Request: fold
Amino acid sequence: MSGHDASLIEVGGPWTHRQVSAGGTRFHVAEAGEGPLVLLLHGFPEFWWSWHHQLVSLPAAGYRAAAVDLRGYGGSDKPPRGYDLVTLAGDAAGLVRALGEANATVVGHDWGGLLAWTMAVYHPKIVQRLAVVGAPHPLRLRQSVAGDPRGQGWAARHTFGFQVPLWPERRLVRDDAALVGKLLHDWSGPDWPDERTERLVRKAVQIPGVAHSALEYHRWLIRSQARPDGIRYAHRMRTPIHAATLQVHGALDTCTLPASAQGSGRYVKAPYRWALIEGAGHFPHQERPQEFDAQLLDWLTDPGSGR
Reply:
């Protein structure tokens, strides 16, 4: 990572930045607090900054918060492959161990949420608790795209548009990543993103390699469906989840519709809680941080209630 990239990614605040190696890949982590580990996984097209509010609220409540740049993003390595959910779940499981813990509460937004659901199935011992934000269970997502082409199918049109080679990468970074700014505005409720967040996310996507890596996630999701690896994955994801689960969604989410996320609880055999945040779109943890944190911290204290 060049000095320029590092200064962009290592935004100052009440957290520390470090590089952590897991499974031969280096990850950039922003970390704060002491106590039980909460691993925070961002979504598309963001980076660890997605969790800057929670890097303050979680430590204040007695937790150790670690927000990671996923493979291919921000200050983490950008290898040519490994952008499937199984490999990404392995990355995150390895990170928990590399951070010195046997398990963690895993909180994932958007792609980080799909990855968190996957971890709970593939690495159940590592996921002590699961919280997903703006992310249906992967099988529920598949059902809603197929079953509601005008609703969730249309909402996910960007993913289909990303399937062609090269052109989407150029489009993502063109005009100082104007498209990334547009997606943030389109998917959120009113009054978000703030200027600083939009600027940081647009700059971060222009780090060499990020646009391509970010789009490879979307390409795997569609292309693997008919391939042996995708079929194996879908079959394995029917395994019931035995970690207490919180599912948070913004009522105004136009990227993954609330109706597409509802019904994910059928895959959870442990206590399950659904929370809808009014007035928020696809990024409730950033759009309405106080309400989001209240839900998260209440659930962390008592994950047993709900269903």
